[in-house]
Write a structure and sequence with these properties.
Layout: H1 3-41, H2 46-79, E1 82-83, E2 86-87, H3 88-92, H4 95-102, E3 110-113, E4 119-122, E5 126-128, E6 141-144, E7 156-161, E8 163-166, E9 173-176, E10 179-183, E11 190-195, E12 209-210, H5 225-235, E13 237-241, E14 246-247, E15 267-268, E16 274-275, H6 281-290, E17 299-302, H7 305-318, E18 329-330, E19 343-344, E20 352-353, E21 356-357, E22 364-371, E23 378-381, E24 398-401, E25 411-413, E26 415-418
Parallel strand pairs: 22-25
Antiparallel strand pairs: 1-2, 3-4, 5-6, 6-7, 7-13, 8-9, 10-11, 12-22, 13-26, 14-15, 14-16, 17-26, 18-19, 20-21, 22-23, 23-24
């Protein structure tokens, strides 16, 4: 082989090696390009990850802005006294609380609920008093509205519930059985003597005292005892006068020695009135019934022993004064107190329990209960504030007279309402 041929062979070999290298290089580059493209554009590629990260960041930013907006809204609502766009107080108000706040005059018989879910039946043309209790156990007070506006101060009555009563928001129940009771003279503990379900039976308390359906003597019995029992049970309660009946027009103090009847004035159930006194049991019954004689929606009557005794049990259960039936009224003046001003001997504080005033004093109160005494058939109840240490009779005590009798200014009366 000559020199030229040797050179040509080497050139061919070099060219072959260069082409192979080039091909391999191209293949490697293509492979790297594929890997790079897959890394950048693939399912988990860098661009997709970058896009996903951007979306996550943007979503987080939106969520953060929304949370900040909610916090700002909550702070503003809290400062303005509302949460979630609603008035917080309005959400929490019970029917009773709202009616007190609004001064609502009810245009029909209406059932309200207190915050413990107890029901109260409000008569047509009545409203809740501004100083009413907000729950049944505090003493719900209604008043009639003679002037037809929410600011009038009318005759006031307190709701006496019967049956099961919720005493807290957990709906723990206390039961008051509707009936006639006797009360222990030392402890005040009540003893059911006659359930209201047995009102047709003639059952004596202390061997002498009865609540008759029809009169057996010269005294007046309940206007409609069957109607009262039936309607009170249906309504789950009834109303008792918040005060002893007062004389609307009387301006002069009533002295204990007065014996002139006051039966020509207007009877009212209001605070700071001179008690309606010097009146017999039949006269008191007639006046009690006359107060709503033209109202077909409600019935007013002289208080009976079922109403008074059940009221006494209500007070002893919920006032914190479990011996209230044995409490004594007291007075240091020569005249009677005005309604709502009597005090108790035990603590020298107002005689007020569960929003009901003056049962332990100021005067004896006529009832429709009857006495089987040979000559004295009219029964009054309660204590009297006649001078300090004199005539000490307790809230539950009974006193008897003949039908025409009254003892100066010792006898007044209290009314009930039912619907």
């Amino acid at each position: 082989m000559n020199v030229e041929e040797n050179i040509e062979l080497k050139l061919r070999n070099n060219i072959g090696i260069t082409i192979v290298s080039l091909v391999i290089t191209i293949i490697v580059l293509l492979m790297l390009a594929g890997v790079a493209l897959n890394f950048a554009l693939g399912e988990d590629g860098i661009f997709r990850k970058a896009k996903k990260a951007t979306e996550i960041y943007q979503n987080a930013q939106i969520a953060e802005e929304k949370e900040l907006e909610n916090i700002s809204k909550y702070i503003n609502e809290y400062l303005n006294g509302s949460i979630d766009g609603e008035d917080e107080e309005e959400v929490k108000l019970s029917d009773v609380e709202k009616a007190i706040e609004d001064g609502t005059i009810f245009k029909e018989n209406t059932i309200l609920k207190d915050k413990f879910d107890n029901e109260i039946k409000i008569p047509k043309d009545f409203k809740l008093a501004i100083d009413s209790g907000k729950t049944v156990i505090d003493g719900i007070v209604i008043e009639d509205v003679n002037a037809g506006d929410s600011k009038s101060i009318g005759n006031q009555y307190v709701w006496i519930p019967i049956g099961d009563i919720n005493v807290n928001e957990n709906k723990d129940v206390e039961t008051i059985e509707f009936g006639r009771y006797s009360f222990d003279e030392i402890t005040g503990k009540e003893k059911l003597e006659q359930s209201a379900d047995r009102y047709t039976e003639e059952i004596a308390i202390q061997d002498r005292y009865y609540e008759y359906i029809t009169s057996k003597y010269d005294n007046v019995v309940a206007k409609d005892l069957a109607g009262f029992i039936t309607k009170a049970k249906s309504s789950k309660g009834f109303y008792i006068g918040r005060y002893e009946v007062g004389d609307e027009e009387a301006v002069e103090a009533r002295n204990f020695t007065d014996d002139e009847p006051h039966i020509s004035q207007t009877p009212v159930v209001k605070k700071e009135k001179w008690p309606y006194t010097c009146i017999s049991q039949p006269q008191a019954a007639n006046l009690a019934r006359s107060m709503y004689a033209n109202n077909d929606n409600i019935v007013s009557d002289l208080i009976n022993s079922y109403a008074l005794d059940t009221t006494m049990v209500f007070i002893q259960r919920f006032s914190g004064d479990s011996d209230y039936s044995q409490q004594l009224g007291e007075n240091t003046k020569s005249e009677l107190n005005k309604t709502g001003e009597s005090i108790l001997k035990s603590d020298n504080k107002l005689d007020m329990r569960c929003n009901i005033y003056d049962i332990a004093g100021n005067t004896y109160e006529w009832t429709t209960e009857s006495s089987a005494h040979i000559s004295a058939h009219c029964v009054s109840r309660g204590g009297i504030c006649k001078l300090k240490g004199d005539l000490e009779f307790s809230a539950a005590d009974r006193h008897i007279y003949n039908a025409d009798g009254f003892d100066g200014n010792l006898d007044s009366f209290r009314t009930i309402l039912y619907l």
